[in-house]
Amino acid sequence: MTATTLLIVVIIGSVVWLWAKNESHLYRQQKRREAQSLVVALANAWTNELTDQNWSQIRLGLTLLMERNSDFMYMLVSDVRASNQIVAASPIDFQEQYVPDIVPPGITEGANRTLYNTTVVETFILRDLEFPKGKIRARRGERVIEVSTAIRNSAGEKIGTFRIGISLVAVNDAVSNAIRKALLVGAFGLGVGLAGAYVLAHQLSNPIRRLQVSASKIAAGDLQHRAEVDLADEIGDLAIAFNEMSAALQDSFSRLQKTIESFERFVPEKFLSVIASDGIENIQVGVASTRVITILFADIRGYTSMSEHLTPLEVFSFLNDYLASMGLAISETGGFIDKYIGDAIMALFDDEATDGALHAARAMRFMLQVFNEERSRQGLPTIDIGIGIHRGEVVMGTVGFSSRIESTVVGDAVNVASRVEGLTRKYSCSTLVTEPVVAALRHPEAFNLRLVDQSVKVRGKDEPVAIYELPVFNEFEF
């Protein structure tokens, strides 16, 4: 609408300017023609009076003309025989002067040199003019047209010069009136143009606004949204292309979401928050964060001898069923599995308290009982597991190189948790936890822990650590 309005203003302004310029030229041309005709007629009429030096008659005629026509600013008659002295003038102040101070001297010189042709020049008044005496006829600086012609005798000789100054006020008033009319026409055209521009802008902007709203909704995540623009023009084509883009975005996002969900099966979400805080696409080797977490190790007892009596496919099926049961128990109690090491499970708990890890151990024992009952019904051998839990400082991050990156947890606490799981065989316990785990419990009374060894030295660690047994419950809820 702004662009259309500016275009209309430029067009109308150009038309008004050209109209005003043309009108001004026409009025000035008309005024010049009238003045030329008048000067020539008066010069011919006063030839005899000037020849006979009947100046009083000329002066009377000038005065009468000045009184009857308010456009006449001054009238001068000079005599060549008297060295171009002004012999008749109206106003009479300029009589007997040679170069009157009414207009610039160059105008007077040009008029005196006129021999045959009529001279028309546009100039300005040098002083205020009074006619009659005491009444301002023209102000200093006012624009006038001076027309001059030679007065010749019967022999064709120049005997004088007749000059008349005609005000341009009437011309300027006529031009101003023409401009006002042009402006009125222009204002009407501008109003019609603005109305048309508004309608056009409304028709164009409404569907574009709807497209903008649709784009905002899609940007906000509503990829199912579609633009509703039913037009058979370029904007309609744009809406169709926009909807096709939206559908393509939805399809791409769905595939990306499935890819992310699949990726999270390999790398837990809590792990991703540490190693990929800027997004999965920005994962780099060497990203690391130091955390104090709880580590749970679980391992099947006698797995090697059992797997020797099974085919690889049966081992594969057995592991999937077992790991599914254990994974459910861990995830339901707030932990996440970091990795599988053969039949062993390494799970992490990132809470400030360690209650979740102990609940997970109980849940795993319960799920193992359910798992064994199902195997017994199928006539398959049952299994037993050992669980070790420790808490300490570790480094979570990525290792590898550009073509193969893996998330991992590194630290002495990981080794201790693995060693504690191995001690379950030595102490004939199903679940063992270390002193740091017990110290971080929010509700230690809920677990009925039993001290197994006050000071046991774990292989690979110089400082001894106290270990506790978590009793086995046959039935509980988690």
Question: Major sheet: size, sense and barrel closure?
Answer: 8 strands, mixed
Shape: rod-shaped
Order of helices and strands: HHHEEHEEEEEHHHEHHEEHEEHEHEE
pLDDT average, as an integer? 83
How many individual helices?
12
In total, the number of strands is 15
Low-confidence stretches: 474-478
**Radius of gyration from CA coordinates:** 56 Å
The CATH architecture of the domain at 269-469 can be named as 2-Layer Sandwich
End-to-end separation: 67 Å
Structural class by helix and strand composition: alpha+beta
Q: Do you know the CATH topology of the domain at 269-469?
A: Alpha-Beta Plaits
Instruction: Report the CATH superfamily of the domain at 269-469.
Output: Nucleotide cyclase, GGDEF domain
